[in-house]
Write a structure and sequence with these properties.
Length: 392
């Protein structure tokens, strides 16, 4: 069986990152001679990684054949693990879901039971022999050190500090593993699904609060993967002892006022039953005035934290996702008010503040795109092709 050459790998990355290419456009972009282009294209066509998608008529001369990345050449496994639930999915290389299931779990139970549940959940998905899994993508609600995929000092994932997830899951599921912070995956999903590669601050407001930053079209992870931890930014005022205690152990964090758990706590204090973010949204949709009031106030606290981030990085858009984004204008109003009040006009004049374009699967979209790019990096591609029996 043939091994995939470095040149063909480079060509695959080019074709995968665009809608389609012709022999002429490949030659123009790469500077390769015509016979080199042909040889490398033949290699990818033989491996089934690229397909001839048919000729498109030109204004003169013979129509040129077009070549596209074949999204049915393989598949990906996804484990989107949240604080209290996980979604497991088998998707094609463009992110179309082939099968999926959701389970309840508790991230604070620690890595062993949670990763066992991930293995069980993925193994329970129906598989297809014609669509071998290239890789597994895991998103987790904590800071991830890249490229190792190690969890670092997570505020809410009790017992996970230092856990190298690829080292545990890779051998058990026999696929390369990419780990990504959940909000980074959502931020990237917003960029991919809107097709606008710009400057974006994505804020997830669910049980907790987190943010993902896309600057100059690239995801910002920071020196150790902790960039965007908006939820544990300090916004408390007055005597520290009276500021609310956060899940991270500090007082006065954004999350201690505006996270779903904090709003549920305040609802309970006001005599209204609520166990978490889902109950807060349910009370809100039922028109409970106490819930409306608390969510609006949460919006103002979020707005103060977001205003600081807006001043610092000047995004074009602030996008709100997560369970509490279903609160819509109740939440956005306070955010807009405080961002306008606290950030400079130059940073806010054309700033768009809105909810996520795909509230239910924006993280999945982002993770799939990150994984496809990652899998096409040369080292992973050779490994993947060997694994699925395409290359020797
Ligand atoms: Zn905190």
């Amino acid at each position: 069986m043939p091994d995939v050459s470095e040149g063909a790998t480079e060509l695959l990355r080019l074709v995968a990152s665009s809608r389609s290419e012709t022999r002429a456009s490949i030659a123009r972009v790469t500077g390769w001679a015509r016979n080199t282009v042909n040889a490398r294209l033949d290699e990818l066509l033989d491996l089934g990684l690229v397909t001839d998608t048919g000729a498109v008529g030109g204004s003169r001369g013979r129509p040129a054949a077009r070549f596209s990345f074949d999204a049915s050449a393989g598949s990906l496994l996804i484990a989107d693990v949240g604080a209290s639930a996980a979604r497991f999915a088998h998707v094609d290389l463009r992110g179309a879901v082939l099968s999926q299931q959701e389970v309840s779990l508790d991230i604070t139970a620690g890595p062993e039971p949670v990763l066992d549940a991930v293995v069980r959940g993925l193994e329970a998905l129906p598989t297809r022999d014609d669509l071998p899994a290239w890789a597994l993508g895991v998103s987790l609600p904590g800071p991830i050190e890249q490229p190792a995929g190690r969890v670092v000092s997570p505020p809410i994932m009790t017992g996970w500090d230092g856990m190298n997830v690829p080292e545990v899951l890779g051998p058990r599921l026999r696929v390369p593993v990419l780990v990504e912070n959940d909000v980074n995956a959502m931020a990237w999903g917003e960029v991919v699904s809107t097709g606008r590669m710009r400057d974006l601050l994505f804020v997830k407001v669910g049980t907790g609060v987190g943010a993902g930053l896309v600057l100059n079209g690239a995801l910002l992870s920071g020196a150790r993967g902790a960039a965007g931890d908006l939820g544990h930014t300090h916004v408390g005022v007055g005597d520290g002892a009276v500021q609310p205690l956060c899940r991270c152990g500090k007082r006065g964090c954004v999350e201690a006022y505006a996270g779903g758990w904090a709003i549920a706590r305040d609802l309970n204090d006001a005599g209204v039953d609520a166990a978490g973010a889902a109950d807060v949204v349910a009370r809100l949709q039922a028109g409970d005035p106490v819930a409306v009031d608390l969510v609006r106030e949460a919006g103002r606290v979020l707005g103060a934290g977001i205003a600081a981030a807006v001043s610092l990085v000047n995004p074009a858009e602030v996008v709100i996702g997560g369970q509490l984004s279903h609160a819509g204008e109740h939440l956005l109003m306070g955010i807009r008010e405080k961002v306008a009040a606290y950030a400079l006009p130059l940073a806010t004049q054309e700033l768009v503040i809105r909810t996520a374009s795909r509230p239910h699967d924006v993280g999945l979209v982002g993770l799939v795109d990150r994984m496809t790019r990652w899998a096409l990096e040369h080292a992973h591609l050779s490994e993947i092709l060997r694994r699925v029996g395409v290359a020797s």
